[in-house]
Amino acid sequence: MAMLITNGLVVTFEPDALHGRIIPGGAVAVDGGTIVAVGETRELQALYPHANPVIDAGGKIIMPGFIVTHTHMPYVLGHNMPVDFTQLKSFWDMLQKMGWEWLEDITTPEGIYAATRYAAMKMLKSGTTTVCELVEGPHALPGALSASEKAIDDVGIRAQLGFEVTERIPGVSILDRLDRAMAEKGFEENLSFLARRPARGQGRLQGRLGVHTAFTNSPETLKKARSIADRLGCGIQIHVAEIPRAFLVQKYGKSAPMVLEEQGVLGPDVVAAHCIDLTDEDLEILRRNSVNVAHTPMTNSLGGNGVARVPEMLAAGMNVTLGHDCFFTLDISEYLRYAFLLHKAHSANPALLPPFQALDMVLGNAARALGMADRIGSLTPGKCADILIVNPDCPVPVVPSSVLSYYTSTFQGRHVETAIVDGKIVMKNGSMTTVNEEEVRRACIQEARVLWRKNGISV
Ligand SMILES: [Zn+2]
Question: How many whole angstroms from 39 Cα to the centroid of ligand 1?
Answer without folding.
Answer: 39
